[in-house]
Amino acid sequence: MRNVVKSFGELIAVNEVSFEVREGEIFGILGPNGAGKTTAIKVLMGLLDPDSGSAEVFGISSSEDPIGVKRIVGYVPEEQQLYESLTPREIFEFIASVRELPEEKASKRVEEFVRALDFEKYYDSMVVTLSQGNKQKALLIAALIHKPKLLILDEPFSGLDVRTASIMKDVIKIHAENGGSVLLSTHIMEVAEAMCDRVGILDEGKLVAVGTLEELRDVSQREGATLEKVFLALTEQEDEVREGIDQLREALA
Amino acid sequence: MKFSERWRLAGIISAEVRFKGYLEMNPTNLARVKENPQKIARSIKSNSRFSTFITTALVFSLAVLTAVMAFVDDTIGVPQTRLAVGLSIFLVLSFVLLIFLNLSVTTGFFSADVISFPATLPLSKRNLDELSLLAFIRVFIAPTILILTIFPIITLIAIGPGPALVALAGCAATVSLAIGALTKMAIWFRKKSHQVDGSRMNAVVRISASLGLALGMVVAFSMGSWLPSLIHFIADLTIGMGTQGSSLLALLFPFSFGFLASAIQFGLLVPSTTILAALGASALYAFLAILSYRRTGNALQHITVGGVSSRRTLELRDINVNTSTALRSIISKDLKLATRNIGSSFVFIIPLFLVVFIYPMMAGWSQSEALRSLTALISVEYGNFFGGITIISVMMFDTQGASIQAGLPIKSREVLNAKVTMAMFPYVGSMIMVSFLLSMFPLTSPLIPLIPLIQIPCGYTISIAVGAFTYWKRGGGRAVSISVVADTGMTFLAAVIGALVGFVPLVGYGVAMILTGNHIVSLATQSAIMVMELILVQSQVPKLLKD
Q: Does A2 touch chain B (CB under 8 A)?
């Protein structure tokens, strides 16, 4: 992504953002709610046109050939807007058909995922009856069904129980270990710290810093600090957080 | 807890019930409720007001119209038959109205969590049970009060206290039985629409149920135009059947109440066997109504806390994936979505809706003279108007699956082609229906029914033009979905564009007819203009679309 700017009316959602995700790495975009993470991802997916700058995936331009980008990317968006009155079987059949996957290959891959994620029981149940965790599993299988080179996950751990979150983490790691790349957006610092090879910190549409945890510690001059502390320092929120906690302490006393 | 407090709380719960029912009916809003909750809430509020207004107007007009025909119109049989049939027809219509106008709200009531918030408050189980029942009563209170008051009051003023009392009892029994039937129907429909066992039979039941319910709603809304013919028909039938026939009819619900009211007013002018049959049957139906009231209360308390089970009924099947072409898979997906939701299934009954709409017009015009080509042109133009709404309704299905659509490599043109294919079915059906209806009446030329048949390809032009314009207007050219209910502006625009695009070949026909007076030349002109318009639209569509 190079110098991407995207605004909605007066609001500049993404401002001169540049970063790259390398092959075989897990790259995390960190930022508070409304920082511009989802907008940046949508530009990369070709779902939004940037005002200026460019985005490409493995040499394919997101704005000129969004269909080409979607062919090699697996995307799990933040919102779980699935077809509520279809079953996962029907959704996977729809996806495999649109992606023109060979029936045998698609069946084998779906079966492997369904068994690995303990999803057999829900395979023929309507999506509307599934829990949030099971919906997320369905979205993950949908994103992985075509063996994508790049997996893009927008806040994949929101509202998940421990077991499902743990499975999701394993899937992401295995995908990267097999040479696939992962772009992960999250506001959960512990997840990013434990999983990401490199992270980019996005705040109010601007990319504040990019690098490994060590590199970010150096930039923020917080030696040995957790990613959370580094994040607060780089986004200049330490004082705000301290004041908020003081007020809370008084309110709760 | 005081009754006033329980009543107020029940009001909050019933508002939530309406909200759930509305979302159930409009899948688009289900997906967008997080994006713009205020807009959805406003839309639900205005929809709820509109629904209350329509229900009130419908019940009021039905009561007045039936009463006028039963008590004033001398052209219908003898007075005792008029009263019996008039009251019975009002009860039948009230039964149908209560069921079909409240089905969506009742389905919403079965979303188990409507009572979950009050359950967190320090309330006893008995209080919670009462709350759920009160909330249900509040949903139905307006139409129930109207049904229980208007017709009995008119009867009291026009005839006297005896028949008015029977009318009141009949109305109460009807309301109770209708709510009982509605509860059972809503539970059954919710189960069927949330169950997938892969069997063809289940799919057939689901599709039939959706179409039947959608058609029922259309019929409920258009009752006023059919009422006079219905009363005449039943009255003639009753007189034609003689004493035995009327006694048999008096055994059936709700005719027993009608004949009982007539017997009280006119005494032995009504045959004694009919009086006995009406008396016995009315007592039986009153007993069943009380039973229905109690059972509905119990079922309701159970369901609002536990929800309706929609667990699968068959064993696990093989985990395999059957693929097809992209176009077929989109159509197959849309068909499944449409048949699992009452709101969506409306698209497929548009031809029947059109029939309900234009039949009285044709019947009225044909009384004075043979129908001209102008009748056909107007009817086809109605179909064009609905054609614009159809394509946008089909586009609405995708809002549910935005998370899936966003990541899929589908070209906007491919999505549009699939939607256009779907939209063609109702359009073709509409044109065939118009042609069939025209052929039922005397015509100035036997070629007139060909006008709608020749117009069929124009369904493609209308759909592709409206679809591409919508994608351009709302998605900057990308495939988007539109809510027919929430985005009324776009829906209106779609209907207007559909009407305009479909109007052009009809104008061609009209001009050729004025200039030559020849039907064959006019039909040829209609065809030629339609082909030219199709070529023009096809060439412009790619300019509007973007992937």
A: no
